[in-house]
C-alpha cells in the first residue's frame, strides 16, 4: 500500500524483504540492466542488508519497527542516506515498550500506571535462572501493589497480543514469566485498565515537527488482534474525539523524524483516555484512510518522509469501517481451508461501498493478516449493515474451519480458490449470495440512529408515533425517547450536546403548551431541530405553535404544522436527502406516489361522485 | 491503474507493451524462474506478440482499442484463451467510427447526422490519387447537404482530436482530405453539432449483459483533449442526468463481451443527447471514480472480465473533479520544461481533497497525458475552488512554457524535478504556495450554489437580506432571486424542479400574506424548504405564519419566526452541517460567540446597570 502511494507520485521505492514475491515487491518492478529486480532479498533485521539498501537509496523508512535500529543509526552517521524516517532513536525508543512509557510519562501524557519488572537491564543479567526468579518475585510484589489481574508485558518484539500475559494472581507469576521469555527478555507490568472501548488515532508528522491527526476511530480486537475499525469514533461524551486527537498529536510531536504514527488508546469509563502504545509506521487502524480520507496514511507517509507538504487528514465520506481478513487455514495447500479464509473477500464483492485488499501473501496460516476490506457509506447504520453481511459470512466460515465442515456454495465463487484469473474466468455467472441483502437499517431505537424523536411526555406519543412510522417506511435509522425540558433539564442538555458526536443528523422534538423543548434543544446543538407543536386542551395548539416558531434571532427551530409529526419526519428525510442521493430518490418517489394517489381519487370522483363520500 | 485494481484482488496480470518500464509494468513485477519479468516486450498491434500473450493467460483484455482485432478473434477461435473482453468483434466495430455509428443508429440510439465519405471500402481503393479526389468531391457534396462547418473524421486510428478536421467551406475540402490520410484512409462526415456541453458516462457490462452506469459527468475539452471532468453532471433540466445514463446503458448493452465502456455525448441546447463516440475500455472521463466512486472503473473492469459480481457505481462523495496533467516540454531533457509540466502536481499537494496520479511515463512531450489529479469535496463550490488553485498555477506554467520564462520558486519544490525521492528529500521544508488559499466560495449568486434564497417580491428584500448576510458570513455559496408563486407560477415550477439537479441542498423562501411560495416550492422538490413568514401591513404576520406552517400531511415546510430570515439561513447551515463536519464546527463556534456576547452584556449590566440602556 506504501508502494502504491509512492508510485502515484513517481517516487521510486527499493525494498528490503525476503524473497522475490514479498507483497510489496509484487507491485513494484525495479529492473536493473540484467532485467532482474533490484530489490534486496533479505531480512530487515540483517545489519548487512540494511547497509546494502542504505547505500542505494536517498531516504530510508520502515513498515515494521522490529528492525535493527542500531544499524539504522550507523548508516545515518556514515552518511549512506540523507535521512532515516522516523529517526533511528525514535524507532529504538518505541521498540522497547517500557522505555516508550517512560518517555511518554516524562512528557506528561496520560498512561495506565506501569512499572519495570525484575532486573531492568536484561543485557546485564547473565544468569537466566537468576533473572527469572527476580522477575517472578517482582511480579508478585507489583501485583500486591497494583492488584490483580495484572497485565504483564514483554518490553520488546510484542505485537498482536504476542508478548502480553494477564496475571490473575500471585500464583501465576512464574507461569507468566516463563511464557514471556523465561528470564531472557525484559518485562514490565501495567495496572489493569478496565477500559470501555479502544480508540486509535493516526498522526502524520513532518521532519520539522508539524503534526496532523486523522479522525479518532474505534478499534475492536478479537483474541488481541485488530478485528474491525470504525471511523469516525462515536461517543455520548461530545469531547472525546477531539481529546483523543489532541493527545495523539502531542504524543507524536515528542518523537523525532517524519512519517505516520499509530497511537492506540484506552477510553476509560470516566471519559479519560490512556495511551496504550504507539507504532512508528502506517498502522492497521489507519487502513480505512485509503478509501475514506482525503489523503491515505500511506501517501501521507510518503509525503512526510520526502519533505513534501502533508495532505489533508479529513474524512471524505460520512462513515467508514474496516475488517481484517485473517488466515483460517492450518495448511496453505488445503484449497478448502483457503476458500474459507477468502469468504469475507468473496462476499464483499456483492456489498456496495466495499473495497477488498488482498495482500498477495504466500500463505494464509491461522491468524495471519492476509488482507482487509474497507466499507464506506452515507451513515454509520449503512456501514454497519454492510459490514454485517461480511461478518455473518465470516462467522460461518470460521465455524466451518474450526469444525471442519464444507463451505456452502453460496459463499464461494465456483472454482475460485485464490480469486485468480484462471479459475474465476471460467464461471460466466456469479453465484455469490445475490439474494441476501444487508438487514434493514430502520428499527425502533436503532443503535446507529440518524434522527432522534423526542417528546416532553408520553402523552405526546400518539401524535409523535406518525413520525416514527414515516422514518421506518423510509428505512431511516432513528431513536425515540422522552426528554422533558421542564422535568429533566439535565437529560435535555446531555441529549442535545451529545447528539452530533453520537452521529445524529436531525432531531424532531414534539411539545405542547409552553412548548420549550424544541427551542431549548436547538440552543444546545448545532444540528437542525424540527419542532412539532402538539395541540393541548386549550387554545387549539396556537400556544404550542407560537412557543416553538417564534424563536429569537440566532437559534432556529424548523417548525411544522400543529400535530403534524408526519411532516416533521418527512422534513428530517429531506434534510438527509440534501446530502444523500438515495434519500432524495426515495422522497421523489414518495411525492410521485402521493400524486398518483390523488389522481386515483380524481378518477373515482369523476365516475362515482354521487356516493363518493359514502363509499370512502 | 488497472494493474493496481487487479493486484488488490490477487489477480495476476501479464502485460504486452513496449519495453521493461512501461507504466503498468513498473507496478507489476511478475518474475520468472530466471528472476526476470515475464511481461511481454512488444507492440499491442503485433499479431505474433498478441498470440504469445494469449498462450500464457486465461483472459485477454485491452486498455487501448487500436489493437489487432483480427488476431484477437483468431486466438479466441484457436482457444488459446478462455475469453477476450470485450469481444474482438466489438473492438473491431468500435475501431471503425463509421461502422460504430451505423451500428448505434441501427439500434435506435441518438446520433448527430453522419454519412460516409467517398469510397466507403478503402481496401478496394487501389489508386490513392483517385480515392483522394473521390473523397474531396464527396466532402463538397455532403457540405452542400449538411451545411458548413462540417466535421470530417477519420474512420480509424482517431483519438484526442487527431483524425478530426473542421471543414469551414467547400474550398477546404481538399486540404481536409489531405490532412486526414490523403486518400489512404476511410473518412466520414458529421453534421455540425453546436452542442452546449459535453457529457460522458462510464458503463460496466458483464459478459452476461448486465449493465451499470456510473453517474453522468461533464467533460471539458481544450484543443480536443480532455482537460477537466466534473461529477456529477449539473443541469437546469432535471432529467438530463438520468437520460444520459439510460442512453449510455442502452448503447453498451448492444455490444458483446465484458468490461467498462466510456460513452461520450453532446448535450444539445434543446436538451437532446447525441452519442459522439464510445470507447471499449477504461476512459479518461472515468478516472475520477478511483477516489470518488464506491468501485473504480478499473476494479469494475477487472470484475467484469473475470465474471465476478459488478461493483456499485455510486458516488461516495458529494462532488468530484479531474484535471489532466499534459506534457508542456518539447524535450524530456529540459529540466525546466519538465518542472513546468509538473506544476499542477506540485501545487495539488497543498490542496485538500486532491490525489495526484503520475503515470511514470518516460517523457512529457507537449500534449502527452502524463498524469491526472482528482479533486473531491463536500460541494461543487468547494471542488471548483480547489480546482481553481491548480488551474491558476497550470495557466501560469503553460504561459511560461510557451513564452520561455523561468518558473517562479513558489511553483516548484526546491530541487524537485521529477518528484523523485533523491531530490525532494534534500529539502526539509516545502516552499509551495502555503499562503495562497482557494478563493472564498461565498458571493452573491454563486455559480455553484448550495442554498437558494427566493422571495415573492422585491418588497421582501429588506427582510430576506439578513439571510444572505448570514450565508456570506458562513462562506456558504448561495443564490438570491425573485420567484413569485402567484405572478410567475411557471418560473416557480422550473426553479423547484431543477433545484436538486443544479446542486442546491436547501431553499429559503420568504413570503407574506397568503404566503404560498414556500409550500408550493416544497410541493415540487424533494429538498428541504425553509419558510420565512414576512409581516405584511395587516394581521402582524400571523396570516403569513399560518399560511406557511399549516401545510398538509405529506409536504413539510420548515417554518421559522415571522420576519426572521436570519434564523432561516442559520437553519439552512444546520442542514448542511448535518452531513458536513466543517459547517458543524462553524455553527458550534457561532453559538459560542453568541454566548460570549451575552456574557459580555451580563458583565456590563453588573457594573453599569443604571445607565445601561442609555449607553446601549
UniProtKB/TrEMBL annotation, chains A, B:
Coiled-coil blocks: none
NCBIfam families per the UniProt record, alphabetical: PRK06019.1-5, purE, purK
Record key words, sorted: ATP-binding, Decarboxylase, Lyase, Nucleotide-binding, Purine biosynthesis
Residue ranges with Low complexity bias: 424-440
Pfam families: AIRC, ATP-grasp, PurK_C, RS_preATP-grasp-like
Pathway: Purine metabolism; IMP biosynthesis via de novo pathway; 5-amino-1-(5-phospho-D-ribosyl)imidazole-4-carboxylate from 5-amino-1-(5-phospho-D-ribosyl)imidazole (carboxylase route): step 1/1
Highest taxon of the lineage: Eukaryota
GO molecular function terms attached to this record: ATP binding; metal ion binding; phosphoribosylaminoimidazole carboxylase activity
Organism of derivation: Pseudozyma hubeiensis (strain SY62)
UniProt name for this protein: Phosphoribosylaminoimidazole carboxylase
Enzyme class: lyase
Catalytic activity from the UniProt record: 5-amino-1-(5-phospho-D-ribosyl)imidazole-4-carboxylate + H(+) = 5-amino-1-(5-phospho-beta-D-ribosyl)imidazole + CO2
Region feature Disordered, mapped onto this chain: 424-444
Residue span(s) of domain ATP-grasp: 101-306
EC number(s) reported in the record: 4.1.1.21
Transmembrane residue ranges: none
Keyword Nucleotide-binding: yes
InterPro entries given in the database record: Ade2_fungi/plant, ATP-grasp, ATP-grasp_carboxylate-amine, ATP_grasp_subdomain_1, PreATP-grasp_dom_sf, PurE_ClassI, PurE_dom, PurK
Database matches in HAMAP family: PurE_classI, PurK
GO biological process: 'de novo' IMP biosynthetic process
Annotated family: In the C-terminal section; belongs to the AIR carboxylase family. Class I subfamily.
